[in-house]
Amino acid sequence: MADLAAVQEAALAALREASTVGELDEARVRFTGKRSELVAAQGEMRDLSPDERKAQGQAINAFKRAFEEAYETRRDALAAAELEDRLRGERLDLSLPPRRVPPGRPHLLTQVLDEIVDVFVGLGYRVAEGPEVESATYNFDLMNIPPDHPARQEMDTIYADVEGPSDVVLRTHTSPVQARVMTTTAPPIAVVVPGRVFRADAVDATHSPVFHQVEGLLVDEGVTMADLRGTLLTFARAMFGPERQIRLRPSMFPFTEPSAEVDVSCGFCSGQGEACRVCSGTGWIEILGSGMVDPAVLSACGIDPDRYSGFAFGVGAERVAMLRHGVTDIREFFEGDVRFLARF
Ligand code: DAH
Known about the structure:
By secondary structure, the chain is an alpha+beta fold. 42% of the residues lie in helices and 19% in strands.
């Protein structure tokens, strides 16, 4: 008959020494499983005398109880330790500074286009858009620029490569959207048109074959040049500052009569004729072209020029952005150098 007391001691020691739940279960199999000395001792019971059997039975039960209790205590301790370990391993230190992902933002040009549009939306204008690939009919004819008009040559038009005589151009200005709006909408009309335009220009510090304009158009009964002036003064002050003045100079555009080039007073010098890089000492900076919509344009677009009049203007977005932010080279807008882009 096995010495149960010694086996029990060895079993309890094995439980104490188990350092994982796995090792604990190995000990359980070894000391209480089918081939254990405990089970063998139970098998030997029938060969014992009644007195011996009673004593052995009590010893076996005591062993089982002691083992079970020690097993459970140890298992709970190991499970708690393992959980603790896992929690410690997976702990997140929320006080660590995050890895920096630089926030993106709209491109400077997008910001300026949005600002220009916002000024007019604030005055009650709607935003309109038109196609960048345009027909010569809208780009030229409806804007009062007939085929033999010198403005067609001056605009360095990029023609689309199509079969036969080409009527398809990349729009040279946003003005054709005036015609698209007027041929489809009855007055009163008040729209701003931001967009990309194209000209076959060589690239230098102030020229790019692709640039952006914002066109404005207002058509209603009784619209006068005073309305144009007031509107553009509001625009110039919103964009450049409340102290600015504007002046209108006589000019010539096929689609407006009369036409005016608009200058904004220089905010970078005293305007007293000193050497200024921005206004060359004149005190004035040209910012846009404008005028009263030519009655011939109204008629061609189906609007009665005897009842309605209107004004229009076109402003270059790159030019405004350069003046506002001291950018001296138009190529900066298109090169995508993050050192430039991150400044705005
Ligand atoms: N379309 C002209 C250009 O690209 C700019 C312009 C001038 C637009 C006068 C207008 C305007 O609407 O009235 O040079």
